[in-house]
Amino acid sequence: MKIKKERLLLIAGFVWSIAGGNILFIGLNTYAEYISIRNGALTLIVFFLFWLLVFKKLTRKHTKRIREYPDEKQFFWLFFDKKSFIIMFFMMTFGIVIRTQHLLPNQFIAVFYTGLGTALLLAGIIFLKNYIREQRSLKG
């Protein structure tokens, strides 16, 4: 259950990429009926807001936290801190409820999920990039 601390970045990369990919997939599958310049612009706004205000900072914070762990092996779930697990739980719960109960129109789902999913996927890619950098620095 314990792994090298550098592998926490790899786990974070996979978790965020899978989550982002799934949300992006839902958004894109809903998008077909709503393709327009306005919706494209709104999707970009959602992406940039989430990336710049949330996920860019989050990737830096968690990468720094993981790098500062002692060199001994760490529990695999420490790729997140407690606060992040709570946020993820509520985001997933609200997302599922909103979609299954049809609380928001499909146009909103298309725009919002595509922007959010892209930002989440980018966070996963950044964690994977940080893992690769960490591996290279350990070798050289």
TrEMBL record:
Keywords, in A-Z order: Membrane, Transmembrane, Transmembrane helix
Membrane-spanning segments: 7-28, 34-54, 75-98, 110-132
Presence of keyword Transmembrane helix: yes
Record protein name field: Transmembrane protein
Organism whose genome encodes this protein: Enterococcus phoeniculicola ATCC BAA-412
